[in-house]
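User: I've been going back and forth on whether these two constructs are worth ordering. Before I decide, could you fold them both?

Assistant: Sure. I'll take them in the order you sent them. The first construct and its structure tokens:
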Amino acid sequence: MRNRTVALALAPGALHPWDLYELGVVAAVFGTPQPDLADPWYDLRVCAIGGAGAEQPIGFGTVIRPEYGPEGLVGVDTVIVPSVSHECVGAERPVPEELVRALAAAHARGARMVALCDGVFALAAAGVLDDRRVTVHWEHAELLARRHPLVRVDDSVLYVDDGDVLTSAGMTAAVDVCLHLVRRDLGAVVANKLARRMVVPPHRSGGQAQFVELAVPERPADDLGPVLQWALAHLGEPLTVEMLAARAAMSPRTFHRRLLKSTGSTPMRWLLNQRLAHARMLLETSALPVERVAGLCGLGTATNLRRHFAAVLGVSPAQYRRTFEQH
């Protein structure tokens, strides 16, 4: 398995209680063996910049004693940086130099780098994000852009996959980007089964909007759920906004407004994202011809499927399939 070793890089300093969520997500996704999904699973190591065995406060009077120091980042496939302490974000003190050096060295050796929420400040301090598009929780976007002018900050999305560097917004976006990594490494089937086990949505596109006034929900409003589930079961059929609105007992205008508020997507954009997600799964898990895949996911023709793949993913369906054939 490629990208098997994962290091969680903990910076010194007490974390906010809600940062515990990110640590739990990483442990659940990468640190919990899933032999029925893939064997071997990931090998997760927790690295404290203060050194192996150094107590790391994680809130509520709890500490952990990681088995690795910064040397644990050497040679791993993926480095995940969770939120750093708020003193670092607020510039009351800089990101620890030892962490900065360790992250820069890991990246130079070819590790895939991942920042969860304001862990992006540590990657930026290490120079990993220069001239890259990244995201962060909307509350920190202005500060990140001001402090690191070479970084292109986009606070409108849940996560950004820039190949060997990935960044995500706050809290539940950590679930999204971690499952996205599993999808990249092991395919859609494994990622979807893991998501069901965790009782979370199997896939939210990184391009889904962050909301300032309203946090992104993990599921649509209850009155939209049944019609969206029905749509997912009928993606291969012609679907219109009017048809979906009628099933939801709403006017098209009301349905459009409610779906946009609940998911950050217009009805047609939501449908396209679901169809592309279904097409990706079929390409990853079957040998069906591209024309057949296009029909099953509701995009009609191979030409239409190729056009949308190029616009959204930057590759052709055939190129996408070959990528997963290499895993």
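The second construct, handled the same way:
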Amino acid sequence: MTNFEWTSEVPLAAETTYLWHAQPGALTRLSPHWAQEIVEESYPPIAPGSVAQVKTSVPGSYGLVRRPFSSVHSEGPSRFSFVDELKKGPLSQWKHTHEFSSVAGGTKIDDHIEFSMGPAGFDSIDRTLIHNLEATFEARHTRMLMDIEFLERMNAPLLTQKKGKRILIAGSSGLVGRQVAALFSSAGHFVRLLVRRTPKFEYESHWNPELGIINPRDLAWADAVVHLGGRSIATRFTKKAKEEIRSSRIDSTTLLAETMRTLPEAKRPEVFVCASAVGIYGSHAEVPVDETAPAGDGFLAELCQEWEAAAARVEELGIRRVSIRSGIALTSLSGFLKLQTPLYLAGAGGRLGSGEQGLAWVSLDDLARSYVHAVLTNYVRGPVNAVAPDMVSQQEFAETLAAHLHRPARVPTPGFVTELVLGADGAKELALADQKVRPERLEETGYQFAHPTLTDCLEEELGSGA
């Protein structure tokens, strides 16, 4: 049996720190993306007998290779403590005790882990795992401090003891939706999720946009409605795919907006925040654009215009509307960065196309935070560009990613290769798009980026490989 100890401090009272860990979404927010992916949090969180399911990364893989790992919770040795113990996973034993105690200026968090890889003779593997745990807990500490700072700026109910808002979220099973839901619930707000499957938990409600099924009482319950649903656009733009992409967004948004219309005025939500994309500006930009720029040409530009118009119907009802025009979310959990990283690690990475195209990117954390900022900041309305202030070209992205991974960036991907994968239209509007976008509205309304530069983002999302 090998022992691992880690101690850190945070500027919150011990009871508050313990309660934060006991909130739905805390595990999602605490977990470095390169270290583990949350499949399903335990519910109720950290309650004895509850089970958390994750995919933990193999050390040295930058989060590209993950193994299933589940743990069951039990009571800890003191008032503010809890334990999670291996239920199923790649280790033979794992017991993690979390304890929170008061110190001057905040809380001391003591993490004690007892683990075993298997029979004797695995010393080198144990040392590797300890090194990985050190990197993981350092990153966990950084993430928690980052979230505490954000919660303070957003006057989180967990910190102020004031009543939280009621947040109804559609599209919560997606990459961004999970983080948005976790940010709200870990802050102490009341979150209800619209799901298409049969609800499993008390905080879930069924809906089916294709069939026009939704319970108006869910919308009447909500102070704010957040909609992030929609079929992935990372595909060949065939006629069928375009129609599915369009209908998944327009039909669901229309259903939400029209259901709000049927409610008595006093029962309507205060704000509707709906997803959109920087694709509204088209696939070619001569100069950087902000939210005042006109829409461009192409399928995505037309789609986003129609999408935002469907969301804007709620303004006739006196409901504040925000459309989050997101850039490419960079994360090791999915999407562009996850697809590119293996190529670079193999020495086959490089720019896409000419490399001169602007890449409108944003970290997953900043994209999720932009939704929370939009809901809780009363004077945010209309279109909001959720992109990082650090504008880069495809060439600059390639060089920065290669430097982070200590690999060359010498193998450019010609345009015809992306056309083979995405088709001519998909390649033009996605992989080879030239998008230079500024986050003017976010900065004007006081938003502070967690990862303002590409280097910051890559360090967060990929770590050092551990």
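Notes on the second construct follow. The longest strand covers residues 93-103. Residues 2-153 form a domain with the Alpha-D-Glucose-1,6-Bisphosphate; Chain A, domain 4 fold (CATH 3.30.530.20).
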